[in-house]
């Protein structure tokens, strides 16, 4: 298995319709890995409390914001998600001249969740992530096995007014503000000479390593990328195809556009094989702060065979039980040293039912077509309901406390009917 990774997209006015920001990501992970969608409410903490991330414990903050996350079920962090302030983040694996080997530290997925829990704007999320990166570092296996698959991370972060691209190499980093149009990232460095924030020692470090002469224009991607492109050739192709798909709908990008991009298999964005798209997310964020954002998640593999289901942040949101995997607590093989000596069953209810349906779709053409059409109709109905919310707002928040779980139940009912 040649590990690959993900594609993340953001489109801002004037490339979108209706003064909205559209965010999307496919999480490409091992095909046998379960991705869950979970919700954590805002919470206050006492001074001196700690938070246990995937591998290490760090200082907790006084208050965390409410978050909805799509994450590999075995770890603490997340591949993608959003918070109650409509900050959205997706991360990518990147490799370059800096070695990825080292001690266990924060995973990029941990940094993503911490950014969502602690920042109410995209720019603040950049600050949160980089401060934690500099203090604790990044490192540790990113797969639930003993392969030692490690990488650096890039992040695409958006809020109601702008987006930021943050790219890291070890503890060093650079960030670029995106204020309009669209941007997509894959598994390669993309920040060039437009750098709006950076590690204070970034350039001197590059010069000391002999990667930059200290006189020519500083280009982050050129300086920190591999000298050869063999490792990132596939991601480069996906990046170019993703950019073309965004350009094709420039000025008219909608949630449906983004879902179509995430479902595209010809481009490789909807990945198949031993590494495949195991979860997908599309968020619709009105620039008007009086209107709610709507966040769609599949919680199942292959968006072409999945339903994007809506989530809205309301005060009394209930737990997302049908897409939450079983917890094994301190007995989890991830927590025991040596790690990963076994793999427990992490299938949540929706995942297990979706596996059966996927097998039917793949093996029975006519029946599979009927099931897929039923799933698409359900998605269309959900999106039609959400369009009114995106335009008019939420008058009775408590009615949406079970929005996502109800949509999951409707999806599972559609499986049964079909």
Automatic annotation (TrEMBL):
Signal peptide: none annotated. It comes from the Eukaryota. GO terms for molecular function: cysteine-type exopeptidase activity; dipeptidase activity. InterPro entries: Peptidase_C69. GO terms for biological process: proteolysis. Pfam families: Peptidase_C69. Belongs to the peptidase C69 family. Secernin subfamily. PANTHER family: SECERNIN (PTHR12994), SECERNIN-3 (PTHR12994:SF18). This is Secernin-3. It comes from Pleuronectes platessa.
């Amino acid at each position: 298995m040649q590990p690959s990774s993900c594609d993340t997209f953001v489109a801002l006015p004037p490339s979108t319709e209706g003064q909205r920001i559209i965010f999307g990501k496919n999480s490409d992970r091992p095909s046998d890995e379960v991705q869950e969608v979970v919700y954590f409410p805002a919470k206050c903490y006492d001074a001196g409390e700690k938070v246990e991330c995937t591998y290490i414990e760090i200082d907790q903050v006084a208050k965390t914001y409410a978050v909805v996350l799509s994450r590999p079920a075995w770890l603490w962090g997340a591949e993608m998600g959003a918070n109650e302030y409509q900050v959205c983040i997706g991360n990518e694996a990147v490799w370059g001249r800096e070695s990825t080997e080292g001690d266990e530290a924060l995973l990029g997925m941990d940094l993503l969740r911490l950014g969502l829990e602690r920042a109410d704007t995209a720019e603040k999320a950049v600050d949160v992530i980089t401060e934690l990166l500099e203090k604790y570092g990044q490192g540790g296996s990113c797969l639930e096995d003993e392969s030692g698959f490690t990488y650096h991370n890039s992040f695409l972060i958006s809020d109601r007014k702008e987006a930021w691209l943050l790219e890291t190499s070890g503890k060093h980093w650079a960030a670029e503000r995106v204020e309009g149009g669209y941007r997509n990232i894959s598994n390669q460095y993309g920040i060039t000479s437009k750098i709006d924030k950076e590690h204070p020692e970034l350039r001197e470090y590059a010069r000391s390593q002999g990667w930059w002469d200290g006189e020519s224009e500083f280009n982050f991607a050129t300086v920190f990328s591999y000298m050869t492109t063999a490792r990132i050739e596939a991601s480069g192709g996906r990046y170019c195809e993703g950019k073309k798909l965004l350009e094709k709908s420039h000025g008219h990008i909608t949630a449906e556009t983004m879902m179509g991009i995430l479902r595209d298999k010809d481009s490789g964005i909807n990945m198949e094989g031993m590494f495949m798209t195991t979860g997908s997310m599309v968020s619709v964020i009105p620039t008007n702060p009086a209107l709610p954002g709507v966040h769609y998640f599949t919680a199942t593999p292959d968006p072409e065979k999945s339903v994007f289901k809506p989530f809205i942040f309301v005060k009394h949101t209930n737990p997302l039980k049908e897409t939450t995997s079983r917890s094994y607590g301190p007995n989890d093989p991830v927590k025991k040293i040596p790690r990963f000596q076994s793999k427990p069953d992490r299938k949540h209810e929706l995942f297990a039912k979706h596996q059966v349906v996927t097998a039917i779709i793949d093996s029975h053409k006519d029946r599979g077509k009927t099931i897929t059409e039923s799933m698409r109709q359900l998605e269309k109905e959900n999106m039609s309901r959400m369009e009114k919310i995106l335009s008019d707002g939420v008058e009775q928040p408590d009615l949406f406390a079970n929005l996502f779980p109800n949509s999951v139940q409707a999806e599972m009912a559609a499986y049964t009917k079909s």
